[in-house]
Write a structure and sequence with these properties.
34% helix; 18% strand; single chain; 270 residues; alpha/beta; two-stranded antiparallel ribbon; 8-stranded mixed β-sheet; globular
Amino acid sequence: MSAPFFFGEAGRSLFGLLHETDGRPRIEGAHGLVLCAPLLQEGTRSHRALWSLAQAVGAQGIPTLTFDWYGTGDSAGEDLELSLSGLQSDLDAAAKELTRRSGATTLQWLALRSAAIPMLAYLSSRAAPVDVVLWDPQLDGRRLVDQWREQHRQQLLESGRYVHARHEPDADDLLGFRVDEAFLAQLRHAAPTRWRLPAGSRVRMAVWEMDETLDRFAQAQREAGVAVEAVLLDEGERPEWDVPARFGAQVFPRRAVAQLAQRMTAQVPW
């Protein structure tokens, strides 16, 4: 069961969905889950997968909040207003709203792909330990922005979707969004591998492949007293994020969604 609503401060209204059990009592003492979508086009492409994950976790008695970032989806604002500080404000508002609506005393956080950057920026400023799940995280801000620009170029010129169209996009157009250069500069200079979560925190990474950036992030967190675990997902259903012909398609790795739901509801150990 999911219930839609708007929340947040005046002038910064956010659209959210609370996913819960259908009439059954919540698990006593259960934590709440804030589930965050990636930015720009991947946020749209992963909507079905995140909705399914939220429904599966919520049905097991863990209230789960999904929401649209300010300036995206059904939330207020324009995409040009996206900023790293604004995304962190959205996370703060989401945490307060989930706590208020569900009564959860502790929260767990899940970020898919680029959502890891604002989430880690926000949580690294907290004093108390946090519980984080990073799903296929993108932790190199410079590489992320470069990939977006390359995807944009390929989508216009190589995907075959606009055969008779003239390709004269606006200067601030990126993957169908109008994005402020200042926001892209913030992401390019973001350094999640150097941010430290509070000692005693726990990070679990669900990835299709470990790489040097993820290894450096894990090592830095462990040196700061953070427990880090990694689970490898089935390589056979790895999403084709960078294939031009697939840019318009939903990404729905069914086995990964099921595995994450089982682990996050303690049906299967990490």
